[in-house]
UniProtKB/TrEMBL annotation, chains A, B:
The lineage of its organism: Bacteria, Bacillati, Actinomycetota, Actinomycetes, Pseudonocardiales. Catalyzes the conversion of 3-dehydroshikimate to protocatechuate (3,4-dihydroxybenzoate), a common intermediate of quinate and shikimate degradation pathways. A divalent metal cation binds at residues 139, 170, 196, 244. Residues 421-565 form the VOC domain. Keywords: Dioxygenase, Lyase, Metal-binding, Oxidoreductase, Pyruvate. It comes from Amycolatopsis camponoti. It holds the Pfam family AP_endonuc_2. This is 3-dehydroshikimate dehydratase.
Length: 604, 604
């Protein structure tokens, strides 16, 4: 079997719900098999036999029964008890129809540090297992009492020398300890009984807590799973690629989307391994437009703000209540057919070198394809739904049959204010979908996630992660509260930001004020502190203060930026001037901006 | 000034919201003063002068301006910049009207490991400060680059020898490193410029992350703050007791209750120091009754279940639609005047040796006192509101003027089933109020909190902490989801459990089944696993399986317990038999019970 045909499995512990909920979600997401986590089975009202039958009906194989703990290197009386325990679990496995059991390296106070004894007792267990047609996959826990590296577990398995005893390799246990996975290539493939995959962020904490609460699906964290899995496949492993992810958020999230997220992570990993048959992600060349859905009460407020920001209405859609507003290459579609929920970003559109290929790739990566109604003479835009429900369009604005043809030109009235295009977007993600969103944009659009950052905002900690194409022309900041917010949060709920670029922030701010833009006032304390922190040139400081423009600096450049008030309850604009190679989005200034938006709410 | 008069302060960083929100909450909770956290000031629309005036109006002194970072042991050019920065902050402090600035030990890459240089530069800073009437309180961060113990910060302050330079002691920085605080007594009291108090759970993680996310108010964590604060007071410290708690939950919770929680923590600490003028907590002798509020649709279901559990209706309230159901000393009041929200625990009542003193203490500890309407011939029960809104009554059931006199006796009809009393209650706490609830029961009722435990339930991790009186006769398990639940949670929301005691769980279960109690069925897989794990005697295992009774064992004894289905959407009963000194509540079996309740919901 070539690696292109590797089966994809998932441990039931990855998903929320009862066993019934989990199996349904795994099957719907297209997994080939599952690992049955013992606690899920114990709490199930189905007998082991019924679970086996149900999996078969769903088209799921059962690839592993796990975990069996604290078996080896114990005194004879404990060994006898442990063998009884194993035999009872073999009975369950027999009913389930699963032939491989995971045995974790011991953490028991009963155990002794004796590799020979461990090997001898594992040999005995394998002998008992073999008599039942079962194999034992021995795994070194990163916090195993004596055995906590894969090299050590391999020495014991080799010493035990039983055909029914092999290794289970788990990327978390190996990479969290900083072990070099290259030596996996020296292990014979037929002794690699099972492979469990998990990613994780780099955290400075107890490895057991890290493992049990913060694992992620491949592509969401900081581990190099492509290299790791490459070593395992090179050694000759032929079993499934199986996810085992303990994550506090996934454990309480709807298992349907979580299973899709999991499957997407494996498809993405297989692509980087060169073994997935996916159309490559076409190059993206920038933001084509942002569509704002606004209800009848919000529409005039947004239109007025756009005019103040220097936008002009330049087109009307031929068949829908949608107006095109434009300034430079920044295009905002204002759709007034939205439900009565104020204003929000309904769609983002990116310029794709090949929109049809972009959509085909998205579909292969399980992105929901959005049905579009359009007249025969209108452009057939390809659109998918992001995890937060936002529509993502792929388009080529410059072409003859492009989407602009759906609009009749109207004479542009109004004055410009220096906006040249869209710099980035910032979209608050639903709490349960933060990591899923980053992987979605990475896998589906081919954007690169930057590291996760956190900052203390007035109403709680905020987590942020930007995904961007290599040229930085498509850039989306994903934000979410670190803890799901409760009733106390008099801040803007799920805010969305459209950041426009300018070559001269101070001039744009001055012009926009003249045009009546509803710009956000920044308090004087901010400028006093800015003076103390960064000591900008006094004349610059005075100008920033006069225009309520915020400022930041890094080793590569400077950022000047300012904001509008919140429009229609949720959306606001930012205007950004980047000087030199400034890389971030001015997150250091976010708490000040948030407090100012809070005042706006109180004043309203 | 004696320690009984110590002023109580709170750092604005402890609370959620803008500076305006925080100051209002601190003043309402009765704090004497605040530490102004710089970020809160920077984001405020009030000028420093206006903030100072506003605090004065609220009756709050400003006791500290903080933090000033990365000052000392740097090259001359950096020193010049740092002094400029300090002078600008002195300007702000002058406007605020605060005379003490916190300077944290450096973490800067610009700094060098040179105590003499640090002392020399801090002397210079103190000289500049003194000229403005300001004092510098130097604090060793637990993760300071060179200075990270209070002993080291004291050596530097002593060497600097400036009257305007002293120490800030922070209990977290000192106790998190395991430093011995006893040597604080050797520091002259006049050099202790400030004291910051924070508790914390014992966590195995990076100390900076631990500090910035997981601090708690005194009495909520694992630190011995009584001993710590005792050393500081013995040294002659005469400043305020000031809370500085960085906590992810408090940072996003309503600041009103959080400030009350904070104040309660300081009152409790002062009591253990012998310096709070609080009436002592009267002894508690058990649960007097539990009142269930049930609407018209839930009332018959609950009454039927009570009958099935062997309860009999023994009394009717003289003036309210409340029935008393009793079995042994277990008393359930069924109040059918509740709003249409199914069934829930409306009140818990404890037997107090002195109900009036219990209520007086509660009031002093800022517990809301509930107004009670009662007729002149009815008992005047003292009641307060717990953080989850449950009423807590203090009563003496046995006395002539006791609450039972409010009920007319009715002839007891029905058969008993071996229930002897109430073993414990388990009440789900609102997410933002978990730690507050533990402190509430500790401080107000004098219950002792047991360690926090966590377990993986089908719909996410659950955190649990039991508070109990020393005799174990009053016992309340506080539970909460580790992460606030979102829309996916097809489990029982905010469940409440009333655990009854029996001397023979198997006999009670059998009898209750005969009486028609709606007992929860436990799946066979549980018993197969129980056999493998604990190998109970085969005849016991068979009986447990037949009666759907669950089992656990610890080093001191055994637990047999079983459950009803969920009644009225939220409440269920448990029946508990404790054998020997079994200490817990069978939490190991909770996931199985939760999955069974989930099936009940799906079947419904």
């Amino acid at each position: 079997m070539s690696s292109t045909e590797a089966r994809r499995s998932i441990a039931t512990v990855c998903l929320s719900g009862t066993l019934e909920d989990k199996l349904t979600a795994a099957a719907r997401a297209g997994f080939d098999g599952v690992e049955i986590f013992e606690n899920d089975l114990v709490a199930s009202s189905w007998s082991a036999k019924e679970i086996g039958e149900h999996c078969a009906e769903l088209g799921l194989s059962i690839d592993l029964y796990q975990p069996f703990r604290d078996f080896e290197a114990v005194p004879p009386d404990v060994l006898a008890r442990n063998l009884r325990r194993a035999e009872l679990k073999f009975d369950v496995m027999d009913q389930l129809g699963v032939d491989t059991m995971l045995v974790c390296s011991t953490v028991s106070p009963d155990a002794v540090d004796d590799d020979d004894l461990a090997a001898e007792q594992l040999h005995l267990l394998a002998e008992r297992a073999a008599a039942r047609g079962i194999r034992i996959a021995y795994e070194a826990l990163a916090w195993g009492r004596f055995v906590n590296t894969y090299e050590h577990s391999w020495r014991i398995v080799r010493r035990a020398a039983h055909p029914a005893l092999g290794l289970c390799l788990d990327s978390f246990h190996i990479l969290s300890r900083g072990s070099d996975p290259a030596a996996i290539r020296t292990i014979p493939g037929e002794k690699l009984f099972f492979l469990q995959l998990a990613d994780a962020p780099r955290l400075q904490m107890d490895v057991l807590q890290w493992s049990r609460h913060h694992r992620l699906f491949p592509g969401q964290g900081a581990f190099d799973l492509t290299a790791f899995t490459g070593h395992v496949l090179a050694a000759g492993y032929r079993g499934p690629l199986s996810l085992e992810v303990f994550n506090d958020v996934f454990r309480q999230a709807d298992p349907g989307p979580a299973a899709v997220d999991a499957m997407r992570s494996l498809l993405g990993l297989q692509e980087t391994l060169g073994s997935a048959d996916l159309p490559p992600a076409p190059a993206l060349a920038g933001h084509a437009f942002v569509e704002l859905a606004a209800d009848a009460s919000a529409e005039p407020e947004v239109a007025e703000a756009l005019r103040g920001l220097g936008f002009a209405e330049t087109g009307r859609h031929r068949s829908k209540p949608v107006r095109l507003w434009q300034q430079g290459t920044a295009r905002i579609l204002l759709n007034s057919s939205g439900p009565a929920t104020g204003a929000s970003v309904g769609a983002v559109a990116v310029e794709s070198a090949d929109p049809v290929a972009s959509a085909r790739r998205a579909q292969r990566l399980l992105a929901p394809i959005l049905p579009r109604s359009h007249r025969v003479d209108e452009a057939d835009l390809s659109a998918i739904a992001a995890p937060d429900g936002t529509s993502v369009f792929f388009c080529r604005t410059g072409t003859a049959d492009g989407w602009l043809g759906d609009f009749t030109e109207t004479p542009a009235v109004g004055e410009e204010a220096g906006v040249t295009g869209i710099d980035h977007l910032a979209l608050t993600q639903p709490f349960d979908h933060f990591d899923e969103a980053a992987l979605f944009y990475r896998a589906v659009l081919g954007l690169e996630p930057e590291p996760v950052t956190e900052f203390a905002a007035p109403f709680g900690l905020v987590r942020s992660r930007t995904v961007a194409d290599p040229s930085g022309r498509v850039r989306i900041a994903l934000e979410s509260a670190l803890l799901r917010r409760g009733e106390w949060a008099p801040a803007v709920r799920e805010p969305q930001r459209i950041a426009l670029s300018t070559g001269d922030a101070l001039a744009s701010a001055r012009r926009m004020r003249e045009l009546g833009a509803p710009l956000l006032e920044i308090p004087g304390n901010y400028y006093d502190d800015l003076d103390a922190r960064l000591a900008p040139d006094p004349s610059l400081l005075t100008a920033l203060r006069q225009q309520s423009v915020l400022y930041d600096r890094d080793e590569r450049g400077e950022l000047l930026h300012f904001f509008t008030v919140v429009l229609g309850g949720r959306v606001f604009f930012e205007v950004v001037q980047r000087i030199g190679g400034y890389a971030g989005d001015g997150a250091v200034n976010s708490p000040v901006r948030m407090a100012a938006h809070r005042r706006q709410r109180r004043d309203a």
